[in-house]
Amino acid sequence: MLKFIILAVVGFILYKLLINDQKKKKDMTIKEQEKMAANGIMVKDPVCGTYVDKNSDIRVKEQDKVHCFCSYDCRDKFIKRIGAEDVTDKDQ
User: Fold this and answer.
1) Global pTM?
2) What is the pLDDT of residue 90?
C-alpha cells in the first residue's frame, strides 16, 4: 500500500512539473512574439490576434494601411466586416 501512495505522489509531482514547463514555454513564445511585434518584424492579425510576419502573403490594403493575416479565412472575415469597397486584395 505504501508503494502505491509513493508512486501516486511521484506521478503527481511529475505531472505538475510537466504542466508548469508547458505553461512557461507558452508564456515565452507569447513574449517573444510581442517583442518581434514591437521591433516591427511581426504584426498582429486584426481578426484573430495571431502574430504573423510583416511580409505575409495574405494582405489587404485598406486606404493607406496594409493589414496582414494568418489565413484566408481571417482575411475574408475582415473584408466582410469592413466592406469590400475600400479594400484592395494584395495577394494577387
Assistant:
1) 0.55
2) 55
